[in-house]
């Protein structure tokens, strides 16, 4: 198993630089908002006894107030992100915590735990593949903004530290090209679900199958789970093929068990038990 901790120093530097950038943007927007408001009041004051009718003053004030409120509102989002980056940086100075999964797939591709430092890359990857993924993934996964991506990856990071999920990035020469993960992990029943998605142009190379195979080693050997499940729609043939290629057993189909938008969808349940994994690995 290739599970190890990586050096946290460059990661920390990156997080601090994200925080600094978000802070500069936030303060910049705040300043622009305040400046617009001050300029509007100044114009009104200067033109108090001028030739322009009062309606112009109302216009100046409206623009000033709008600028102020937009500036304040958007700067709060940036400042919130900055605080989250700083929190992540402080934590990364210690260590990545439990389940810091890492594994080398081949010369080019590597798996490494997904952390808040991946928020920008995560958002860009989802945005780039939005139409491709929208048919298959839940709306919570399809984050709509960078701030949502930061929040989502923070939630996942907390859940990983609590032992509930193992979120992992598939990286090509360091660049995020897909996500696989274990979760939710039910430690009482010693079971978990595997989920996955990948950049459309990176399909067809076995990256997801090989990544899931490495996660299965982790699930059965390190976490000592008894059962791992894959849930996918019958019409998602590529996803079903991953489960079948890995040797999962089709246990059945839950009919109209989930809502996707207006539609009720069926889900196939594929599972692998500890004994089946051990049998396939010659134990
Ligand atoms: C589902 C999804 C992850 C499958 O991706 P994928 O690229 O088909 O899966 P893999 O990376 O395992 O690649 C398998 C292909 O690589 C080939 N391959 C090449 N080398 C391989 C290797 N060493 N091991 C396994 N397969 C290999 C396989 O033969 C297969 O080829 P095919 O596409 O001609 O059938 C992808 O289609 C996706 O992200 N879909 C949208 C999101 C989604 O549906 N997620 C799942 C929700 S349940």
TrEMBL record:
The keyword Membrane belongs to this UniProt entry's keyword annotation: yes
Spans traversing the lipid bilayer: 21-43, 55-77
Listed GO MF terms: protein N-terminal-serine acetyltransferase activity; protein-N-terminal-alanine acetyltransferase activity
Cited PROSITE patterns: GNAT
Annotated InterPro entries: Acyl_CoA_acyltransferase, GNAT_dom, Ribosomal_N-acetyltransferase
Keywords tagged on the record: Membrane, Transferase, Transmembrane, Transmembrane helix
Residue ranges occupied by any N-acetyltransferase domain in the UniProt entry: 109-274
GO CC terms of this entry: cytoplasm
Keyword Iron-sulfur: no
PANTHER family per the UniProt record, alphabetical: RIBOSOMAL-PROTEIN-SERINE ACETYLTRANSFERASE (PTHR43441)
Protein name: GNAT family N-acetyltransferase
């Amino acid at each position: 198993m290739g599970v190890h901790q990586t050096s946290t120093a460059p990661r920390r530097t990156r997080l601090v630089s994200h925080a600094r950038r978000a802070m500069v943007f936030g303060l910049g927007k705040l300043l622009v908002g305040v400046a617009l408001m001050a300029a509007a009041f100044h114009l009104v004051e200067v033109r108090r006894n001028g030739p322009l009718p009062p309606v112009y003053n109302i216009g100046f004030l409206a623009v000033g107030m709008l600028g102020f409120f937009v500036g304040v509102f958007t700067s709060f989002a940036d400042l919130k992100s900055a605080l989250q980056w700083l929190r992540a940086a402080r934590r990364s100075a210690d260590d990545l915590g439990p389940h810091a999964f890492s594994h080398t797939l081949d010369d080019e591709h590597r798996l490494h735990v997904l952390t808040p430092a991946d928020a920008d890359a995560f958002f860009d990857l989802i945005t780039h593949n939005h139409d491709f993924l929208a048919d298959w993934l839940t709306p919570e996964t399809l984050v709509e903004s960078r701030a949502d991506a930061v929040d989502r990856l923070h939630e996942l990071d907390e859940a990983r530290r609590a032992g509930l999920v193992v979120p992992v990035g598939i990286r090509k020469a360091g660049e995020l090209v897909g996500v696989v993960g274990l979760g939710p992990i039910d430690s009482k029943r010693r079971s978990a679900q595997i989920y996955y998605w990948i950049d459309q142009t990176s399909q067809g190379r076995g990256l997801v199958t090989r990544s899931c195979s490495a996660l299965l080693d982790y699930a059965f050997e390190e976490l000592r789970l008894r059962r791992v499940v894959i849930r996918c729609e019958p019409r998602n043939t590529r996803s079903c093929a991953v489960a079948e290629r890995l040797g999962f057993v089709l246990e059945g189909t839950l009919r109209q068990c989930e809502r996707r938008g207006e539609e009720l969808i069926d889900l196939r349940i594929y599972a692998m038990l500890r004994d089946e994994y051990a049998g396939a690995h010659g134990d």
